[in-house]
Structures
1.
Amino acid sequence: MPQMESELLLSFVQESREHLDQLEPDLLSLESNKSDAELVNRIFRAVHSIKGASGFFGLRKILQLSHTMENLMSRVRENLLVPDKIMVDALLAGADKLRALIDDVHRSNEMNIEAESNRLQALLTGKAGVSATSSAKGLSIDPSLIEHARKKGHFFYKVHLFTHKDIKDKGKTPLDYFKKIESLGQFLDSYTDITEIDGMADALAKDLMCVFLISTVLEKDLMVIALDIPEEQIAQLTPEQIANVGPLVPPAEKPRAAVLPVAAPEQPTTPEFAGAEPEPAAALQKSTGRSRANDTIRVSVALLDDLMNIAGEMVLGRNQLLRTSESIARNVPGMHGLLQNISLVTSDLQEKVMRTRLQPVGAILGKFTRIIRDMSHQLGKKIDLKLLGEEVEFDKSVLEMLSDPLTHLIRNCADHGIEPPAEREKAGKPLTGTIRLTARHVGGQVQIEVTDDGRGLNPAQLKSKAVEKGLAKAQDTAQMTDRQAFNLIFLPGFSTAEKITDVSGRGVGMDVVRTNIEKLGGSIELDSQLGRGTRICLRLPLTLAIIPTMIVGLGERRFAMPQVNIEEIVRLGGKNRIEAVRGASVLRLRGKLLPLVALDELLGSQETGADHGRGFALVLKVGENRFGLIVQTLLDSEEIVVKPLSSYIKNCRCYSGATIMGDGKVAMILDAVGIAGLADLQFAELEKESAALALKGQADLSETQSLLVFRNAGDETFAINLVMVARIEKVRTRDIERIGQKEMLKYRDSSLRLIRLHDYMPVSRPDADPEFLYVIVPRLVKHPMGIVVTQVVDAIQSTISLDETNLMGVGILGSAVVAGKLTIFVDIYSLFEAADPENYREEKAAQPNLAGKRILLAEDTAFFRAIMTQYLKEFNCVFDVAADGLEAWEALQRHRYDLLLTDIEMPGLNGFELTQKIRASETLRHLPVVALTALAADRYVQQGREAGVDSYEIKLDKERLKATLERILGGVRGLPPPASTANANHLVNLEEVRGG
Amino acid sequence: MKYEFAGTDLLIVPDNPLAAATINPLHKELTRLFADAGRFQNVVVDLSGVSILDSLGVNLLVGLYKECRKLNKPFRVTGCSPSIRRLFDLYKLTEYFGIE
C-alpha cells in the first residue's frame, strides 16, 4: 500500500504542478480580462482540483491555502468581487506558495502559509483596503439601466478621459465637462486611476485618467465631436460584447443583465491605447491561456530520452545494414526494396521521436509576463510585454538552457532599456515602453528576437566605458563601427548600467549570456539605435541531438568537432609555422598570435611523435577567444547523432559526447570549451603579447631568434641559432666513411669531419642509425666539422629566455622551452673544442692579447648576453654586463673600460644613441665601440658610421669577434681572416672605410 | 488658504477658487506642512468655501489623499457643495475622500 500511495502522491504533485503552470498565466491575464468567464472558471477549477486531492492525502496546508483561493475565486465567479491588481497579487502570491508547498510536499504541513492566507482572507472579508471595496462598488451599475438603454437602442461607449489634456488644457472645468456628459446620455459607471499620483510631490504634474461607461443615442463620430477628445479614446461596445463579458448569465434570457465591471485600476494608460477591441495583446493573452487539449498523455522525459537514443541507434544500425548488404542486395530479388523501406521508416521514426521532445517556446515565454509585471512595479516604469510566436517549437533541452539567458535579456531590457515614464514623456514617446519577444523559424533554425523601444545603446558611451575598464584600447575603439561598439557589452566584466541594480545586474553579464547561447550552438546579435531602442537576435538550432561536425583523425582514432565551434581550418607547415611564446606553442595567423593545443598531447595519446608542423589547426572559437587545435588529418564533415557520455568518462573535460559513425566505430565529440580549460590557455597573456608584437613590429624581429630545432635520440630536442648554420645536408648513413676513430663525409670535393653529439656531450645516444642522417654544417668557425643528427624538426622564429644553470656540460650553452618543449642549446665552439682539441687549443694558446682587458658588454637579450659572456670568458677578458643602454652609460661613468661591446636594438637608449653620447663626452670620446648586430643592413652601417662606431660585428661569430677585439685592443692591424666566404659580405670594418 | 491644528487634526481650508490661478502657492504651502508631518494625525480638507474646482484642484486633492495614505494618516474632505459632491461621485473619488 505505501508503494501505491507514494505513486499516487507523485502523480498528484505532477498534476498540481501542471495546474500551477497554467494558473500563473491565467491569473496574469485575469487582470486585463476581468470578465472572461471561461478564464475565471479555469482558475477556479485549477485551485479546486488541487484542493480536492490535497484533502485526500491529508496535506493540511495545501488544503487550507487552496481552499481560501477557491473561496475567493468563487466570489469572483458569482460577481461578488471584481478582480483587481491587489487581488491578482494576492492570488499570485498564493500560487507561488502553493508551488513551494507542492515542491516539498512531505514537509508542506510544517510550512508557514499565514501571510498568503491572511492576504486572501482580507480580500474575502473586504478589508483589503479601498481597492477591493471600490471594485465591489463597480458592480453597482443598475442592470435595469443597461436593459433600459438597450431597449431604447442606445449605443454603449467606454470613454477614456484625461483630466489635464482633455479638460484643463481646453479651458474647461471638470464640473462643466461632466454636466455635458450627463446631458448626452445615461452615465453608467466610472472610475479614476489615481495610481498615477504618488503623493504631494507629483500631484499637479500628472494627468489623471478617468474611465467611464455611458449609454447614448449618439453615434461614435458625434460622440467624438461632443466630447472633444481623440477618437481612439472612445471605444464602442456592442451588445454582444457586453453579453460576452458578462459572466454567469443565461445566454438567451437576459443578456443585458450582465454586469460590466469597469473599475479597473490597471487599464492601459497610454494616450495611444487602442480603443478598438479586441486588441492584439488580448488575443495573445488568450493564446497564452489556452487550456491544454485532452488528447495528450503524460510521458516522462527520461523515457523520451531513451526513445531518442534508441532511434539514434536504429539510424546507425540502418546505415551499417545498408553498407554491408550492398553486395548481397543485388543478388537477392526484392531485397533492395525492403532495405529502402526500412531506411525510410527509420528516418521517419527518428524524426517523429525527435518531435516528441519539442515543446512550444511559450512554455518559457509565459513566465516573462510575470517577471515584467513585477519589475515594472519595482522600477516604477510602465512596460508592456508582447509575446509573438509562442507556438514555435524547440527541443526540450535547448528550451531549458535558453530560459536563463532569455530572462537575463528581458530583465536587461526592462531595467536598462526602457526609460522611466518621465524620461519617455520628454522624448515624446508613449509612456508605456514595449518589449517585444518574437520566436520564429528561420531556415532550419529558430530565431528569437528581443526588441525594446527604450533608450538604446550609446556607442560612444560604450567605447569610453570599455576603455575605462581596460577592456579595450582607446585607439582601437576610435576605429570601431557602431555595431562593433555594441558588441563591447559582450566582453567579460562589462555592465551597461551606471550602478548594478538588484533587478538585472547580478554580476553575470552579457558575456555569460553569449557563452550560454554559443554553448547551445547558437549565435547572438545586437543592434541598437540611440533613443529608439535595442534589438537582440538569437539564433538557435532546433535540436541538440543531431549536430553538424567535422570529423578529424589522430592516428587510427577519429573525433568529431562541432562545426559551430570551428571558425576556420589552417594547414600547418610552410608559412604557417608553429612558434613559441612564453613556452607555449602559437601560430601567427594574420598578425595575431593564436595559442595552439595539440590534440595528441592533450589526450596523452600513444601516437605522439607525430609532426605537429605538418598537421592541421582547427581554429576554434570559445566566447571571445580563439585557439588552434592541432590534428593530424581532416576526414569529412558529417551530421552526427549525439549520444551522452557514459558515467565512467563523464568527467573528461575534453569530450562533450560520443557518436557512432557509419562504419560502426565510435568517435568522441570534442568539447572546445573543455579543451581550452584543460589546456589552461592564457588568452589574456597572449593578447598582450600579440599587441606588443604588433607595436614593436619590424624592429623587434631582430630580437627574436631564428632557431634550428633538431633531435639526435628520442625526444631530446636541441637547437642552434640559424646564424651559425651554413647548411644542412641529408646523407645516407652508408655514405659515411670511417677513418680510424673519425667519421668523414665527402663534401664538395673535399672531406668533412663528422662528429656526434653524444660522443662529446652528456646527452642520449640513438639506438641505431636510421637510413638517412642529417649533417649540420656550421659557419663562423675556423675549422668546420659536420654535426650529425637524426632528425631536423623545424626552423622557427622565437623569443627565448635561456637558462644557463639548469643544464650544464660540454657543448651546452643552456636550455629553454621552445614550442612547449625543453630544448638544449648547443654551444658549437666548446663542442668543437672537445672534438678537435688540436686545432682549437692552438687557437686558444695563440691569443694572449686580450687577457685582462676591461670590456663593457651592453646587450638586452638574455640569450645573446649568455653567449657573449661565454666568449668573453674564453678570451680571458675582464668584463661587466649591462642589460640596456642606460645601464651601460651609468657603468661607463663609474668605471674605466678599454672597449664597449654593444647591441644596437635596446630599450631606452639604443646602441647608436649610446655611441653618440660617448663620442660627445669629454672623458669617453676615445673609447673604442664595437657594435653587435644580428642583421647587418646597409642603413645600420650608415647610421653606425654617423654615430661613431668603430667596428661592426655579426653576433655569434666568435672568431671574427676575437680578431676584431685583438686588432683594436692589441694594436694588430689588418683584416681578420674571413671565417667563411658566405659571411664575408656581412662584415664591414668601419675603420677601413674611414681610412683610419 | 487657512490651516489650523485642532488636537491631532490638521484642518485645511482652501480659498475659492481651488484652481490653476491659486494652486501653486497652495501646493507649496501644503508641501511645507507635510514636511513636518509628525505634528498631526488626521488631515481634513474643508471645501465649504470652494465653489469652483478645476482639474488641478482635483489633482491636488488626490495628491493629498495619496500622501496621507503613504503616511498612514486618515484623510477626509468635508463641506462639499452639491455640485462638487456630484463631481467626486462621477470621478469615483468620494470613497477615497471619506465622503458619506
2.
Amino acid sequence: MKYLLSAIALGLSVTAVQAQDGMNDLEIAHTAYTAGQIDIRYAHLALAMSDTPAVREFAALMLRDHMAVNDAAGALITELNVTPQDNDLSQALLSGAAQKRAELSALSGKAFDCAYAANELGYHQIVNSTVKDSFIPAVTVAPLKGLLEEALVTFQQHEGHAEMMLAGLQCGN
Amino acid sequence: MRQLTHLTRRRFGALLGAILAGPALGGNSVQIEIRRFKFDPPEMTVPKGTTITWINRDAAPHTATDSGGTWDTGELRRDDEAAITFDQAGSFDYVCAYHPNMRARITVTD
C-alpha cells in the first residue's frame, strides 16, 4: 500500500498512518469504495466553489462516473452478501481528504481551480497505481477483481482528463 | 436521422423498443458495443436505412453523440441501449459527450 501512503504524504496531507500489508478482499473493497466516495465529495465541493466551465464539467464527470462505479460495487456487495471491512487505510484516506477539503475550501477563483485540478490529478495517479499494482493482484474473488479492473479503466480516463484540465487552466501563469 | 428508441435493460422496454424501432421494416440492424471506454467497432460503414443500436457495457454512463449535432443517444447507463436509424448518406464522427476522447465514425452509403 506504499502508493496510497505516498499520496497521503504528498497530496492528502494526513499524519503518517501505517497501512496494513496483506489487506483482505473485504478491506480492499472498503478502501476502493471509500476512495470513490472521497472523489465524489471533492466534486461536490468543486461544483459549489468554482464557476470555471472546465472545472465544473470535470466535477460533474467525477460525480457521474464514481457514483456509477460505486453503485456497481454496492450491487456486487449485495450479490455476494458480504460486508466490506473498515481499515486503517480507509481511515487514513478519509482523514487526509477532510484536511484537503478544508484547504480547498479556504481558496477561491483560480487558486481553487488549480488546487482542485492538481489534487485530482495526483489523487487519480496514486489511486490508479494502487489499484493496478496492489489491489488487483491481491484480490482473490473473481467478481471483485473484475470490478476493480473495470474501475481502473474508468479512473485512468479520469487521470488523463485531469491532466488536460490542469494544463488548460494554465496554473503556472 | 430518426432517433427511435432509448431502451433500458428492462425486457418490457426492450420489447416495446423493438416494436417502435421497426428495424424489420426493411432496413438493416447492427449493434455497437461500448466497453472499456471504446466504441466497438470504432468505424462502421452501413447502407442507408440501417438502424444502429448502441449498448453500454461499462459501469460509467456514456453517450453516442454526433459531433455535428444531428443525433444523440442520450445517456446510456450500464446495459442501456438506444437505436438510431440512418436514412441519409454521409459520414458521421461521434463521441461520448461525457468522455470526448472516445471517438468513432459511421459512414452511411446510398
3.
Amino acid sequence: MPVKLRDFPRTHFNMPGNAACPGCPETMGLRYVKMALGDKAVLVIPAGCSSVIQGISPKSGINFPILNIVFAAAASAAAGMKAGFEMLGRDDVQVVVWAGDGGTADIGLQAMSGAAERGDDIIYICVDNEAYMNTGIQRSGATPYGAWTTTTWTGKKEHKKNVPFIMIAHDVPYVATASVGYPQDFIEKLRKAATVKGFKYIHLHAPCPVGWRFDPGLTPEIAQLAVKTGMWPLFEYHNGKLKISSFSRLYRVKEKRVPLKEYLKLQGRFRHLKDSDVKILEEYIDRLWAWLDLLEKAPNPSGTARDLLGK
Amino acid sequence: MLLTWFQRGDDGMVVKTLTGNKAVAHAVKAARVKVVAAYPITPQTTIVETLADMIEHGEMNAKMIRVESEHSALAATLGAAAAGARSFTATSSHGLLLMHEVVWWTAGARIPVVMSVVTRAIGPPWNIHVDHNDIWDQRDSGWIISIAENNQEVFDLTLQAFRISEDPRVYLPMIVGLDGFILSHTVAPVDIPDQEKIDQWLPPRRQPYVITPESGVVMGNLAADEDYYMMRYSIQTAMVEAKKVISEVDDEYGEVFGRKYGGLVECFHCDGSKYNIVIAGSWSGDAKEAVLKLRDEGYSVGVLRVRYFRPWPDEEIRRLLSTSKGVLFIDRSISFGGKGHLLTEAMTNLAESTNLPAVRGVIAGLGGVDVGADEFYELTKSFIDEVEENGPFYDPLYWHIPQVYRGKYPERLPGYGKFSYERR
C-alpha cells in the first residue's frame, strides 16, 4: 500500500545528543525505520558510524533498544535474538540489523550469508555510504569505481560489489534496494518486509557528505540523483519476482536518465575522474540494468525455491 | 545411543555410561536451555550432534541455530541470551580462537551464557589432541573458567555453570573445560539426577537486563573512559563475588545431589602434605594415582587440582605455598617466552606466602603427548628427592620432553634454569 507523507508519525526519533555529522543519511534512515516499524523493533548494530551516532552511554541519542555487537557478527547476533524471543513466546518482535556497507559487503558477509541460508526471521538493513566512513573514509567492497578514499588516493580500480544480487542468489523471500532520498519508498518496503516470514534484506543507499565530499545540505538531492542517473536502481524482489520500483521505472530507459556527470560533479570523491572513467561507470550502469532486465523477465516459478520445497 | 545403558535408582537418579561430550549435552538438556548455537569442530562435534538429536526428536524444547562459524556461534548465543533465553554453545581450539572477539564482548556485556570448551591443541601443525593452550587463552576475557577431571564432573560443572553465571552477584559468562578425547570421547558412568530435583535446585534464568522493544535498553554504545574503566572494575568485583558463589553452589550441590568437589580447587591429600602437585584437567587422575603410590612408600605428598582458573584460587594457592616444602606445577600449556600458566599464576601468590617453598614448573603433554601415572610418579619422586638432598630451589621451566626425543634436547633453556635459594 502506498505510503502517504501525512500519515507519518510526528514523534522525534533522533534525540538531542546523538553524534551524527551534519547532513548524515544514517539518522534520516533510522527515523524512517522507526516510522515504518514503530515500537516493536529491536536493533542490532555492528561497528560503524551508527555505533558512534548513538552518543555516550548510559544515554543514547537513538530512540531504539539496541544490542551493539562486534563488526562481523550482526546477522548472527540478530538470529540469536530472534530465536530467543521465539522461545520466550514473543513472536511480535522485529529484530532488525542496521549495518554499514563494510559490516555487510565485507566483514559481515559470511554471517549474513549464514543467516540468509538458514532463513532466520530478521530484517537486515545495509545502510550503504560506500566506504568505511567511521574510521575515516577507507574503501570497502561497496565503494564504486573511481571513488577517492583514504586507501584509494587515485580512485578505486574495481566496481561496487552488488550485495542485493548476492542476496537474491540466496533465494531469500525478500530483497529490496532503497534510498534515503525516497523515504516513502523505503518505509513501504520496510512495512512489506515486516509482513514476510524469513530473511529480509534491504539495501539503503546513504550518501555521506563527509566521505563523498559534498555540501551537507545536499544529502537527499545526491541520493535522488543516484537513482535518476540509474546508478542506484530501486527495485524489489519478493518471492522470486523482481520488480523495478516506481521511482526508478522511468530510468529503465537509458535516454531518460539524468546524465551521470550531474551526479558525479557534486561529489569531491569523483573530482579527479577523466572522461574515460565516466565512460567505465556509464557502462557499469548499463550492465546493472541489463542484469535487472534479465532478472525481471526471468520465468518466475510460483515462488522461491524455498516455497517450492514446501518450506 | 549405542553407548548408553540405564539403571534407575530409588531416588530417580539415572546412571548412564556417557562420553564427556554426551554428559555435556545431558546437562544442557537438564538445565532447560532454550537456544543452542554451535559449529562443528573436533573434538567438540559430538556435543552439537547430540543436542541437535535431542532437539529434533523433541527430547529437549530448544531452538538450534546451525551457524556458519564459531564467531557467529557465540554471537548468536549472546543475542539469544540478551533477549532473555538461557543459551549455550560449545567449541574447541581454533573455533575458540575464532570466537575470541565475541568471548570478550559477551563478558563485557555481562550476559550470562555457558560454553563448553573441549580442550585441544592449536595449529599449525594440525593436531586434534588435548592441550590447554586454547582454554587458558581466554584467561583475561572476564569469563569464569572451570575445568573438569572426569565425566561426572563435566556434567555437574555444566549444570552448576548456569547457576553460577546467572547469580546476580556474578552475571558473567562461564566456560566449562573438558579434555579433548580423554574425556570428550571416553565413556564413564555418569549419575544424572532426577529432573524434578534439578528444576527445584536451578532457579529460572536471571540476568542484569533484557533487550526487548519495551526495555529501552542500549547495550554497548560508546562510554566515557572513566565509565569504561569502572565497568572493568565491576567485572573484577564480580570475580571476587564468584569465588563465594562457586563455593556456595558446590556446597549446595553436595547437599542436594551428593557430590561436592571443594570449590575453586580440589584438595587431594594436600592439607598437611609436605609436597604437592598443582595440576588441572583429566590427567589429575594420573597424578593422584602416582601420589597414592608415593604415599604408600612413605612420602608426604598430595595434589591440589585447580578446578577454576578464573577466578584464580588465590587463597588456596597462598595457603598451599605457605605450608608446603615443595610444589610441583604440571602445565599442559606454555606461554611462549614466558612459562607454564599454572606456575605463572601461582607465583603471583608467592608474595602473600609466609614461606618460600621449592618450586618446579613442568611443561608436559603438549599436543596430547601421553603422560601416565608412572611418569607422574617419576617426576614427583625425583622432585622430592632433589629437594630433600640439596635443599630448596626454583626451577620454573622444566621440559618433560617426549620419550622419543628425550636426551636429544636440553630440558632447561638458557635463562630459565634451576637455581637454589641458598645461592641468592
4.
Amino acid sequence: MFAKVSSLGLFGLNAFPVDVEIDISRGNPQFEVVGLPDTVVKESRERIRAALRSCSISFPVASVMVNLAPADTKKSGSVHDMAIFMAILR
Amino acid sequence: MRMIDDVLEGCTFIGEISLNGDIRRINGVLPMVMLARETGIKSVFVPADNAKEASVIDGVDIYAVSNAEELIRHFRNEEKLTPCEHYVPPETAYNETLDFSDVRGQQSAKKALEIAAAGGHNALLIGSPGSGKSMLAKRMPSILPPLTFEEALETTKIHSISGLLNSEMPIITKRPFRAPHHTISSAGLAGGGTVPHPGEVSLAHNGLLFLDELAEFDRKTLEILRQPLEDRKVTIARASGTVTYPCTIMLIGAMNPCPCGYYGHPKRRCICPKNKVTGYLSKISGPLLDRFDLHIEVAPVEFGDLSSKAKEESSAEIRKRVVAARAIQEERFRGTGITCNALITPDKLQEFCPMDDAAELLMKSVFDRLGLSARAYDRILKVARTIADINGSEVIQKAHVAAAAQFRSLDRKYWSE
C-alpha cells in the first residue's frame, strides 16, 4: 500500500518541498527511512513508534519503507516527523 | 492503515514528534511557510509553538498542532482544528533602556554616530580606556530607524533557521544589535559548519554589528569581514553544498589606540614602546580600515562635562533627525532597491550625490592631499550625502564634504607614522 504526504526541508535559507512516500507491504516487520536522511531523521523512527503507541495505535506488523523525495538531496533535522507520522496513518 | 480517510491534498506537515505524541517546535518555519505559499500549498500544519511565526505569512492556512491526537481527530473529522489568524506584529513601542542622554559630553562622537545611523555607515571609535566608546556604541539601537516589514521578514528568516525565535518573539521587529566577544571564531563570525549556519554578520542583517576591542580579535577573523562588508552577503561553500546568507550590516568597531590605551592622550603619557603601538594598530589592516566610513576619536571626558547639570540630548530627539534623514533617502531611492546612502552602488553615485562647484573643488584637493583610494572617495561622498540629508540639503555643499573628509583623518594620526 502506497501513500504520499508532503513536507518541507531546509538548506541554508532556502526551503524545498519534500514528498514523504511510504510503502507498507507484507514481509519481514521493519521500518526503514531512505532518501539521504541524517541521523536525526533516522531516529524519527523511534519517536514515531512511541508516538503512535501513545495515541493507542499499534505500529503495523509489516515492512514499512519511507522515502523522502527528492532522494538525492540531504534531509536533516526532525522537521519530517509529522509528515512520516501522517503517512503511516494513511 | 487507513486510520484517516480525509484527503491530504494541498496539506503539508512540518514538526517534530516526541515520544508521548506532543509536537515540538522546530527551526526555520518562516522560510518553509514562505515556500509553501509560493508553491501553492493551501494548508500547513505546524507545531503550536511555531504558529505565530508561521502565520506572519498571509495567504496560507496555518494549523497549530500541539499533539498527535489533535492531528488524528482533525483528519477523522471528529474535532476540526481551526486555522490561525494572520499574525500582524504589533507596532513596537519605542522602549530602549540605554539612552544617549546617559553619556556626558562627547558631542562630536554623538554627532558622528548620528550620521552613521542616518546613512547606515560603518564607524570606528578610537579612544583611551573609560572614555565612553562602548557606552556610546551600546546606545546605538536607541537611534536606529525602525525596520520595514520586508527587512523584518529577511532578518526573521535568518533568526528562524538559527533557532533564535520563540513564541513571545515570533518576528524580529527591531534592528538586531549583535556584539560578539572578541574570542569569536571565523565560522562564528561569517557562518560555517558542515551544514553552513549563519554567523554573527548575518544575524546582524539589517542591523548593527558591534565589535568591541577590535584589535583584540583574531586578525584572520577580522579580515573575513572584508568581502561581506562590500558585497552585503556571505557565500559559504562546504562539501554539503553552498549557501548564501545576506548581511547588510552597519559595522561599529571600538578600540584603544595602543596596548596601554593612552597613546595620543592629551594628559596621560603612553608607556608602550613605539613598536608595540605600531604592532597593536597594525592588527587592523589597511583594507579593513578603508571600509570604515567614519573614524571617530573619542576624547577623554572633561571634568566640566562630567559634573555639569545640563541635560544631554536624549536618544528620542536624535532618532527624530535620523528618521527624517532616512525618509529623504527612501524618497530618493524609490524603486532602485537601495535603502540607505551607504548602499548606493558605484553606477548611481553621480546621480544621487550631486555636488556644487565649491564642494567638488574641495573634494579634489582632499583626494590629492590625503592620497585616498577610490573606495575612500566613494565613501566620503556617501557620508557627505548623509550629512547633506540631515541638513535638508538637496545638493552636497562644501561644508558637507569637509565634515565627511574630516572623519577620514584619524587613520593619518595613528596609522601613518
